Amino acid sequence: MTATAAERAAMTHALEIARRGPRGLNPQVGAVILSPAGDVLAEGWHRGAGTPHAEVDALSQLAPEQLRGATAVVTLEPCNHTGRTGPCAQALIDAGVTRVVYALDDPGAVSGGGAVRLRAAGVDVESGEQANAAHALIDGWLTVQRLGRPHVTVKWAQSLDGRAAAADGSSQWITGPDARADVHRRRAAADAIAVGTGTVVADDPALTARDGDALLPHQPIPVVIGTRATPADAAVRRHPHEPLFYPEHDLAAILADLRERGVQRVFVEGGPTLASAFLAAGLADQVLAYVAPVLLGGPRTALTDIGVTSIDEARRLVVEEWLPLGADLLAIAHPADAPGAHENSSRNEGDA
Questions:
Q1: 3-state secondary structure string across 257-297
Q2: Which of 3, 27, 76, 269 is surrounded by the fewest CB atoms within 10 Å?
């Protein structure tokens, strides 16, 4: 059978309360328990690593007799493994829940399979209810599961002739206010914003996400990559989050560490050396190129060496959208050889 009207309404609410949980190592998940008559008995959400999962949070609010014959509506397939907490699938079985409606399958090799366990115990299971909305909610976490590292967006602003700065190094501002506002909105959607030490020394960026002069509610963690020293009075040191400094060039190791810290989305802000390094290493899942109708000439190109020596080695991109921003144009693209990279596009940002 398909989901009932009461179950659809419960899933909508479960998706809303899931957002109360933190975005990090674990997915944001919400759960609603319904009586056999379709009335809401309890709700729960996951509050972070080591805390009860959404299903168990909701179950804990009810007496055993209230749970007999109940339906659990959950935004993600109940887990099937024992970690810091026990398997939610078994908790639902033990509670006497007779039906489970969930949105997305758990992609984990260890944690997945909860639906199979539930069905084997005689529980009626319905999957796929509002799957698209559930995917949008945890797409960053799903990307981490698929890639084994955070999703990476590489952004740059350039003149029409491909320059990131004038011959004297000045670059503020190549693009106009509409493009810069777009960048800040995208920045606020990222978990971390990365720059090279050369950019820190040359431009002294604050790496905050702003609306005019006001800070936006969500701020990405600033990440500084490179062996050059960051000045003691650098603006990045006054960021709302403590900056992370990586005095190395092993990008894979840096991304692995960021994943362990719960970072799902990294926005590579610049400059050309760092952007090129991520592209050369095949670690860019999305490209945002802000193009301004100006000509600068000179040597300061938006990208440097990305490992292409002939046209046959060109890094082909698939453009998802050409977005006009005032007088400027934003190209949103993903690598042509990276299936699925576009699934998590258009959510990160930087300073144009």
A1: HHHHCCCCEEEEEECHHHHHHHHHCCCCCEEEEEEECCCCC
A2: 3
Residue 112 and residue 117: Cα distance in Å, rounded? 10
Residue 216 one-letter amino acid: L
Q: Answer for the pair 56, 42: CB distance below 8 angstroms, yes or no.
A: no
Q: Which of 55, 77, 129, 349 is catalytic?
A: 55
Handedness of CA 116, 118, 120, 125 (dihedral sign): negative
Q: Evaluate whether 288 touches 144 at the Cβ level (below 8 Å).
A: no
DSSP state of 305: -
Per-residue burial over 12-43, b if 16 or more Cβ lie within 10 Å, else e, is ebbbebbeebebbbbbbbbbbbbbeeeeebbb
Q: Which pTM value belongs to this model? A: 0.80
Q: Is 55 a catalytic residue?
A: yes
Q: What is the band of 15 on the pLDDT scale with cuts at 50, 70, 90?
A: very high
**Integer Cα distance of 127 and 74 in angstroms:** 10
If one counts every other C-beta atom within 10 angstroms of the C-beta of residue 78, the result is 31
Which pair of tokens denotes residue 270?
Answer: 């610049």
DSSP state of 60: T
The answer for residues whose C-beta is within 8 angstroms of residue 97's C-beta and 6 or more apart is 33, 67, 70, 71, 72, 123
Query: What pLDDT sits at residue 1?
Result: 65
Distance CA(314)–CA(73), nearest Å, equals 48
Measured CA to CA in angstroms, residue 79 lies from 148, 223, 330, 331 at distances of 19, 33, 40, 39
